[in-house]
Amino acid sequence: MRCSFLRPVAVIGAGFSGSLLAIHLARAGRDVLLIERNGEPGRGLAYGTEDPLHLLNVPAQGMSAFAEEPGHFLEWLMRQDQAALGPLCPAALPTAFAPRKLYGRYIQANLAATPGITRLAGEVSDVLPLAEGGYGIRMAEGGSPVEVSAVALCLGNPPPSQRHAPPWIFGNPWEAGALDGLSPEDDLLLVGTGLTMADLATTLLKARGHHGVIHAVSRRGWLPLPHATPMAAPIPAPELREGAGPRHIAQAMRGAAAQALARGLPWQAALDGFRPQIQRAWRGMSGPERARFLRHARTPWNLHRHRVAPEVGRLLGEAVAAGRLRVQAGRLDRWRPGPDGVEAVIRRPGGGEEELAVARIILCTGADTGPDWLATQPLCGLRDRGLLRGDGLGLGLDVDPDSLRALGADGRPVRGLYVVGPATRAALWEATAVPELRLQAQRVAAELATA
Ligand SMILES: Cc1cc2nc3c(=O)[nH]c(=O)nc-3n(C[C@H](O)[C@H](O)[C@H](O)COP(=O)(O)OP(=O)(O)OC[C@H]3O[C@@H](n4cnc5c(N)ncnc54)[C@H](O)[C@@H]3O)c2cc1C
Questions:
Q1: E-assigned strands of 122-261?
Q2: Does residue 124 lie within any of the structural domains?
Q3: 432 ligand 1 Cβ < 6 A
Q4: Residue 107 pLDDT > 60, yes or no?
């Protein structure tokens, strides 16, 4: 039964996190206002790509949106016709890495099948606390604030940087024109060698037949690692001891990976076995330990934990071997416009520089969740009113790890203000992928269902 005497809950952002939260709330009988600025609820940044070569980095059998129905996505996938599945073979669907755009359609189909969700297209510019409790949602497009009883910020990942402007340097690799106007012969420079670089390189190499050199540079110059083929089930990991710091965790993981390899099993299966313990281990770390982990272990962690589909790994490896993708360790030190584009200077870790003449530079350095993000609306208004604060590690927003309520300037959970999604990383660390985010959505919905 719908609780229509309560004002609706506003869910701001309709990527995976916001959509799932809205679905759970509506199922629990709450009226929901789901607000999305990009006009296509359900897809968000990750599943909004139209490129069929951008694949999920988890096999279909692990991507159910609902923890209690592990086969949900797979069953949906099996009901799609071959035209939708493209080259995917129906018999191999459980272990297939499906195109991300199909996953976006799956979330959209679930939204469409859930009554009780009112959609509002537009950008939220401010969230105002009301004297009688609840919040007013102000839209950038204008009009009176919409009154709601509670708010969930499901804003996802901000782009890497808003400071750089095209045409020479693109701070946001996801913006529509990032690859426009490039000729297939152009050399270009991607800064960052992780999953975003992998997406861009895949589009360039496969979809656009690019044959200029794609330079990719990052501090360590590591290419994303692929999942094992064939995939192996996670190997149950030894219990991490209470209060285990980053050094102990790294040792335990290295030991488990070595044992797996000695038994002829992939190291990936050993690492996956630790995943259920990671949030607990992170929560047990002190502030300085977390900072130390970020300083020393963040890049190796991301490399081993966030892997690409085997076919993407193969494509990147072949491009490196053919000299079409040139990956090196270093950092972009400076650049200036040149006669045919940009002259970029790469500083190598051990000293020395290399100058590259490229058509453009695209930053693939990941989300910029630091102070710049907090200075954007609707976050800065909430922060200025003491209802929100950064987490101190530059990972996102400070939240209570149990309730996911935002922590205000005084460090106390704020009534009726929740955060769901990757912005909760500082509290939980594992807060990026579907298996964790679907639980966050469920948890917050359960709390809000009766609030
Ligand atoms: C490229 C990429 C690939 C990924 N692949 C996988 C994968 O294969 N498997 C996996 O498990 N995880 C994957 N992930 C992890 C991913 O973070 C999560 O799966 C999930 O998509 C995060 O969803 P979200 O809703 O929290 O954020 P987002 O998808 O970023 O959605 C946030 C939404 O909020 C909207 N928004 C922001 N501000 C406002 C505002 N002021 N007003 C209105 N709307 C607003 C945005 O427009 C956006 O649609 C991937 C991530 C990326 C970036």
A1: 124-129, 135-139, 146-148, 150-153, 169-170, 188-191, 214-218
A2: yes
A3: yes
A4: yes
